[in-house]
């Protein structure tokens, strides 16, 4: 069986480019230097005009469940201020089987400029 593992902060090492990247639950685990490295890595592999779609835990999620750091709208906007056009950022819900109310999230669509 064929398997590939890659550090998301080092996507450029793949030697590939992508028109679309889907991220469900990865961006929100990074903060500080790691977040900047991930966004730089995305910028290096997403073709100009390519799209990045992200679904990540929102700061609107109450309680202790989920990642330690939950994303604010301002953090998302700041992280993608260089080399990206923010097409939309909307409140959303990640549906899970253990909670009928789901998890509060941000659904983000960006275009590489």
Q: What fraction of residues sit in β-strands?
A: 35-45%
How much helix, percentage-wise, in residues? 10-25%
Q: What's the quaternary structure here?
A: single chain
For this structure, what is the CATH homologous superfamily? Vaccinia Virus protein VP39
Strand segment count: 4
Shape: globular
InterPro entries: SAM-dependent_MTases_sf (IPR029063), TPMT (IPR008854)
Keywords: Methyltransferase, S-adenosyl-L-methionine, Transferase
Protein name: Class I SAM-dependent methyltransferase
Pfam family, one: TPMT
What features would you highlight for this structure?
113 residues; alpha+beta; Rossmann fold; four-stranded mixed beta sheet
Report a brief summary of the structure.
The chain is α+β, with helices and mostly antiparallel strands and 113 residues long. It has 2 helices and 4 strands; from the N terminus they run E-H-E-H-E-E.
What does this structure look like?
- By secondary structure, this protein is α+β, with helices and mostly antiparallel strands.
- The chain is built from two helices and four strands; from the N terminus they run βαβαββ.
- A four-stranded mixed sheet has the order 1-2-4-3.
- A hairpin with a 2-residue loop joins strand 3 and strand 4 (99-112).
